[in-house]
Amino acid sequence: MTLLASTVGYLKRIIPGTMRTDDHSLTDPTAEAQDLHTQRDSDLCCENDHELKIGDAKNSEHSHEKSIETTANDVGELHLVASKVSQPYHVIQKGTDEQKDDYEQRVHADQEKLKQATRDKRKAEKQRDEVLRELDQLQTHLELQASETASFQNYANSLKQARLCDMTEMENLRKHCQNLEHQLHAAHTVLIQEREQRQMDRRLLATRAQELHDTETFLTKADLFSGAEVKVMVQGLNSEILQLAADIADTLQFEENAMEVDGGDQQPTEHRLEIGARMKQLLEVGDDPDTHAIIVQAALQGVITRLCRRFISEWSKHSSTDDDLHDLYRDIRKKYADSPAVAGRWRSMTREKGKYRVVSETEDNFYSRVVEAVLNVMCVAGWSPADAKGTLLQTFGKRVSAIVKAAMKLDRAMGEGITSQDLVVYTAHLDDHFDSNTMVDAYGNQKADGDVVACTCELGLKASDGSNILLKTGVVLYSAFLT
Description:
This protein is mainly α and 483 residues long. The protein is 73% helix and 5% strand.
């Protein structure tokens, strides 16, 4: 008991000193052991409490027995001391020193463990604090995100509401645009109709203006030429015809009974020559050269004069068209008998746009007809060189052109330049009796009425109704050849 008491006293002296040391000094083995037992008991209790929540009562009793056993093991040195009281002191002292050293080692190891546990705890606390701070930061961030999410949600709702408003406005604008398009289409249709109507009005106005102009043209009574001027033109044409006939009769040499031209043409008939049968016989005989020359000249004048009269009276170079226009003009004159200017203007425009639509064609055509008529007379009269047409054109081409131009000038003056009245050129009929009221002897002989006309050598001029003769036609009588 004395050894036990001394040991306990020694331990009591050691334990308070150890208790007063800081965390880095040695602790009381008994207290340390108790703390360890307490910590372990606490851990075991925590484990047992956890196991009790999920385990049964048997596991709890087993854990309690294990805790008691563990506690006994931890304080085994005390029981060992008590159990060995009966041993000798030196043995006990030796055992105590060994135990002390072992205890100190264990205490030191436990202190190291405690320090390590403290460090781990502090590290864990530090990590926990960091985790808590991170959690706080995350919580703050989450709150900010929640706030931003709420703001975004509100903004999205406002955008959605604005989008709905925009869609409604767009729908209204779309309907308004459709209405505007319909109005524009209707306005465009109206505009097109107005344009078409305006074009129709313009065409109608142009038509009315043209009709008014044409009416004014028809109603215009002013003549471009007077009757006296036309008479001078007729006399000029007669003079050109006389000059050509006289030059041919004086220049060319005629052979008796030479009836072919260029060796191939047949003898011209009276119809082609437009001379009477008796006049044709006189041309063919040619006994007296002087008399024959007079007959040739008279025949040439008669043929060209009648050709000019027919040309001036024509409305078209086509016979069918010419007849139709003649009949139409006759009807117009009857209809507008009280307004001769209307028929005159129609005649003027019709001849201008028809007969003289291409002046050069009309001139060339009439030139060829005059040349052909002259060649026919010359053929009957006995003039038949190898190149009759070429010789004639080379020698008398300018004279023929002068006749053509004079005839065309007279034709346009009578047909287009005078609208207040109708003037016509006329000739005597073949083999007709001489009439001093309408005829004049070309040779100036005083002949009684009743002599027979051989041919017409000069054109006459009179009104179409015969009421007024401005110029009597000149004729050659057969009696002139006898004398």
